[in-house]
Amino acid sequence: MAITDIKEYAHLTAEDVEQLAQELDAIRADIEESRGERDARYIRRTIQLQRALAAGGRIALFASHNKLAWLTGTAMLATAKIVENMELGHNITHGQWDWMNDPEIHSTEWEWDTTCPGVQWKHSHNFIHHKYTNIVGLDGDVGYGIMRVTRDEPWETWMLGNPIYNVLLGTLFEWGVALHHIETAKIRKKEKTWAEARKDLRVIGKKVAKQAGKDYLIFPALTGRNWKHTLKANLTANLIRNYWAYMVIFCGHFPDGAEKFTVEEFENETKGEWYLRQMLGSANFNAGRFMAFVSGNLCYQIEHHLFPDLPSNRYAEIGVRVRELCDKYDLPYTTGSLGRQYMQTFWTILKLALPDKLLKATPDDARETRSELKFRVREGLRESFTDPDTGKRRGLRTALRELRSGGLAA
Amino acid sequence: MDSPLRSLARWSKAPTKDVQAAKSWVNVPRGLAARATTPLLPDDYLKMLNPLWSARELRGLIVDVRPETADSATVTIKPGWGFSGRYRPGQYVGIGLRIDGRWHWRSYSLTSIPRRDNKNITITVKATPEGFLSTHLVNGVKPGTIVRLASPKGDFALPDPAPGKILFITAGSGITPVMAMLRTLKSRAQQADVAHIHSAPSADEVIFHDELRELETTQPGYRLHLQLTETQGHIDFDHLADIVVDWRERPAWVCGPPALLDNAEEAWKSEGCGDQLHMERFTIAATDKGGEGGTVTFAISDKTIEIDGATSLLEAGEKVGIQMPFGCRMGICQTCVLPLESGHVRDFRSGAEHREGDRIQTCISTASGNCTIKI
Questions:
Q1: Whole-angstrom Cα distance, residue B60 to residue B92?
Q2: Cα separations (Å) of A259 from A34, A135, A368, B34, B95?
Q3: Are the CB atoms for A378 and A410 separated by under 8 Å?
Q4: Which of A287, B12, B258, B363 can bridge A299 by disulfide, Cβ–Cβ 3.0-4.6 Å?
Q5: Partner residue opposite A108 with nearest CB, options B45, B102, B337
Q6: Higher pLDDT, residue A294 or B5
Q7: Considering the domain boundaries, does residue A170 fall inside one?
Q8: Interchain pair B48, A51: CB under 8 A
Q9: Lowest pLDDT segment from B12-16, B204-208, B290-294
Q10: What is the CATH number of domain B59-153?
Q11: What's the predicted TM-score (pTM) here?
Q12: Among partner residues B39, B102, B333, which is closest to A112 by beta-carbon distance?
């Protein structure tokens, strides 16, 4: 049943965790001290590129009856929307660029190009998801209240629709994100009233009207007789953005190895254990520079969760140091190709549509969730120690590897 | 009932409610175009063509930096969209300058004449050893640089029409707001009887020395007394009548370092004519409190509280019953960020000191001396 004793699971002592926290704090301090003109130029240029793409795409679509213009315009607009949502909106709202003291690029001022209002996003994402990351019952992003992504959550009949919800969410991702703040799971449990939800809906409605008005009314109308082509182009651009954002976000927390945690774990958590939960609860995917850019550097989900407010252009270099720490403490660093990460996610969603009695693994030792009991059940290695021959620490990563290869498990 | 035309204009302007426009009709086309650029403004695209074509944040282009004395210079700025030329002589303007990726804000007195000077504004800056922005403005800033501007503010201003008899007492760079007043008087051709006492270490260090001397010869009502402190010592307020016999009867504008202002305040008070005195304290003492707490003022709610260095500003606000915005309470979600209006605060986490003009995370900041937060 998810991880409750994170130290035991990670094969670390309280002192180890404390030391790890200090080393992570040192990374934060180094980055904070070295932020400067180079970083500022990066975000300014990204903004320029994004606006040029958006303006260029809209202009190209004035000739949307022409196939080439349609394709070019749609591609430019889709890219602009992706860059705006991922590298700009998400990251600026996290306060990654607040250090510049520029009111035009600031978490308190930025409104992003999507139907979800920035204020609500700050609550449901920056606060709820980033503070309670992967705590089953507290983090609304564990299945978003509409899917079952871990067997720590008891099966209910409606979950049979898991694969369908998955396709729908991917397609309508922008709308899913906008409605996320409604917290359907809480309404189901009667922790939130419909009156409260209606208030949120009014705020969402205003933003939706502006966004939909722009893409589906004003720009089609502006292009006159081409309105149908432009409408289709805008719809397509939004769809492409939806699928891509969905893909990146699902690959951040649902591949195998992104662990889940219990409320009990959270209640007794130290600063170091918070860090550790972020490391063990997130997953990266391999990306080159282009992929990293269009994913808003969320291919570095682990680094993002450790330091949500450090500038995204630094996650790559932070990643090198985090990997070194993982080696040092023998901790897993969950990553893989985008395809592999997504297939694992997809398989979990498919599988968990079924009731538990049809599933083989227990919540303590399944692909998508594990707990410290995994090592007890299988009588694996629980104690960490330093190998006298190699001088290397043998911890969680080695234990997982040995269990997998059957070297120790019965 | 509003006329339909007015309702239409209001509807058109709706997306621009936070945008300052020099003329309010400009916000009608801006607001209409914003329907297509939402969530951005048309300005956000136009500024890519010309950095001055945006009123989202007031901005200006530095067109000239001219040295005045060895350590002071006059900076001429061409303001961009949205900046109103309707300031009063003596007011100051906020200048934001980007240094190593970060915007730094300070206020400087305007030395230009309102609605003149080809719509450009000028500030005159003296480089002070501790003021790294002033040093940068005097020695480092190049024409062509884009700066941010804040609307002109301040009560230290000359009324229109000006009083018949005036006393100015200035010291060092305290001359700057008074220079704007003198230039305005001259341009309005108002023949006021002006007595001006200016204090500086030596004649070489008098900012606007030649211009003041010229005023003396061309303006019959203007009398200048230069107090050169290296040879003559500081102004003696006990014997002010030796320089200006009727000083008690003159509305006075005094600007200079804190010691001068304190002496002036005392002199005017003891003569019972304190309402004649206008002062500008333009130096904010840098904090030496090191995050040990202080009095926090919440500007909009009009509440204050004394806190120690272990209490966060968020807790402080909640203690006096303000609905403070908050989220994670651990410095990661940015829900609690508020603008710091004046004073200094310290970030618990990094120990970094923030000053006015910064936006701060209230859940991880405490007062570093007295400070004011806008909520």
A1: 15
A2: 32, 9, 7, 44, 49
A3: yes
A4: A287
A5: B337
A6: A294
A7: yes
A8: yes
A9: B290-294
A10: 2.40.30.10
A11: 0.89
A12: B39
Query: Alpha helices of A5-139 — where are they, by DSSP H?
Result: 6-10, 14-34, 37-60, 67-83, 91-93, 118-121, 130-131
B92-99 vs A393-394, strand pairing mode: unpaired
**A196 falls within a domain:** yes
Domain with CATH 3.40.50.80 in chain B: 165-280
Tell me the per-residue pLDDT of B128-172, one tens digit each, with 9 for 90 and over. Answer: 776 778 888 888 899 999 999 988 988 899 998 899 999 999 999
Please state the φ and ψ torsions of residue B41, each to the nearest 5 degrees: -105, 160
* B334 in A contact zone (CB under 8 Å): yes
Name the residue among A36, A214, A308 with its Cβ closest to that of B38.
A214
Q: How far is B328 from chain A (nearest CA, A)?
A: 5
B197 alpha carbon, distance to own chain's centre: 23
Q: Tokens standing for B289?
A: 């409190």
**Chain centre to alpha carbon of residue B111:** 12
Interface contact B328-A131, CB threshold 8 A: yes
Q: What are B196's two structure tokens? A: 């001006």
pLDDT band with cut points at 50, 70 and 90 for residue A408: very low
Domains held by chain A: number: 1
Tell me the pLDDT band of B293, cut-offs 50, 70 and 90.
confident
Q: Can you tell me the distance from the alpha carbon of B306 to that of B370, in angstroms, rounded to the nearest whole number?
A: 9
**Residue A93 and residue B330: Cβ atoms within 8 Å?**
no
Contacts of B330 in chain A (CB under 8 A): 131
Contact list in A for residue B57 (CB cut-off 8 A) is 103-104
- Angstroms from B155 CA to nearest CA on chain A: 26
- A-B CB pairs within 8 A amount to 104
Please give the CATH topology (third level) of the domain spanning B165-280: Rossmann fold (3.40.50)
Interface test with B, best of A83, A115, A127, A277 (most B CBs within 10 A): A127
Question: Per the structure block, which two tokens stand in for B375?
Answer: 């909520």
CA B146 – CA B149 distance, rounded (Å): 10
Residues 6 or more apart from B352 whose CB is under 8 A from it?
B346
Facing A126 at nearest CB: one of B48, B335, B357: B335
- Pairing between β-strand B293-298 and β-strand B365-373 as defined by DSSP bridges: parallel
DSSP-derived secondary structure letter, A194: H
For tokens 């860090």, name the residue. Answer: A275
Written as one string, the DSSP assignment of B170-203 is: EEGGGHHHHHHHHHHHHHTT---EEEEEEEESSG
Helix, strand, coil share of chain A (percent; to 5):
65, 0, 30
Dist. CA A345–CA A72, nearest whole Å: 32
Task: Please give the residue of chain B at the shortest CA–CA distance from A271.
Answer: B330
Under a CB-based contact definition with an 8 Å cutoff, are residues A325 and A278 in contact?
no
pLDDT tens by residue, B212-236? 999 999 999 999 999 999 999 999 9
Which one, of A326, A319, A327, lies nearest residue A302 by Cα?
Answer: A319
| Interchain pair B350, A32: CB under 8 A | yes
Question: Max Cα separation, chain B?
Answer: 71
Could you tell me which CATH class the domain B293-373 is placed in?
Answer: alpha beta
Q: What pLDDT is stored for residue B186 in this prediction?
A: 92
Residue of chain B with shortest Cα separation from A111? B39
Q: Is A288 on the interface with B (CB under 8 A)?
A: no
Provide the shortest C-alpha distance from residue B248 to chain A (in Å).
Answer: 46
B48 Cβ under 8 Å from any chain A Cβ: yes
**Could you tell me where in chain B the CATH 2.40.30.10 domains are found?**
59-153
Residue B152 has which token pair? 């002109």
